[in-house]
Design goal:
By secondary structure, the protein is of the alpha+beta class. The protein has one domain. The chain is 44% helix and 30% strand. Strands 1-2-3-4 form a four-stranded antiparallel beta sheet, covered by helices on one side. The longest helix has 54 residues.
Length: 132
């Protein structure tokens, strides 16, 4: 009877250990996906600000159909999701980069670089580019 109880205790410890490991992996995966979504959302918000600036007249502190002179608000430079910068400004194109706080890759030692996206915004379209 004592041997059987010992086996059940060991089996219980193994099951609990596996459950904790699976939970940690899922948590890490969800954190990465959540940060990825947040960075993309923040870049989309920046693109909306840039398009709004582009379409405004000079008298409304706009670009008068040019991205030149666009500046990001301090709230969008850096937040809990990542750091955002303007990579390039041209009259008809602006490029934003967002670097998230989470690192992509496997949980543990195989994690790579931080989540990084670039958003190319033009007056009629936008293109999102993911960096590895």
């Amino acid at each position: 009877m004592g041997q059987q109880q010992l086996h059940l205790i060991v089996l219980g410890i193994i099951i609990v250990g596996l459950s904790i490991a699976v939970g940690l992996i899922r948590f890490n995966t969800n954190a990465i996906q959540s940060n990825r979504d947040a960075v993309i959302l923040d870049l989309n918000n920046l693109s909306l600000d840039a398009i709004s600036y582009y379409k405004k007249d000079d008298s409304f502190v706009g670009g008068n159909y040019s991205f030149l002179g666009f500046t990001m608000s301090d709230q969008l430079n850096e937040n809990e999701d990542g750091i955002y910068t303007v990579i390039s400004i041209q009259p008809q194109r602006i490029i934003f980069q967002g670097v998230g706080v989470e690192k992509e890759g496997d949980s543990g030692c195989n994690q790579g670089n931080n989540i990084t996206y670039q958003l190319i915004v033009e007056p009629t379209e936008s293109e999102l580019i993911k960096f590895q």
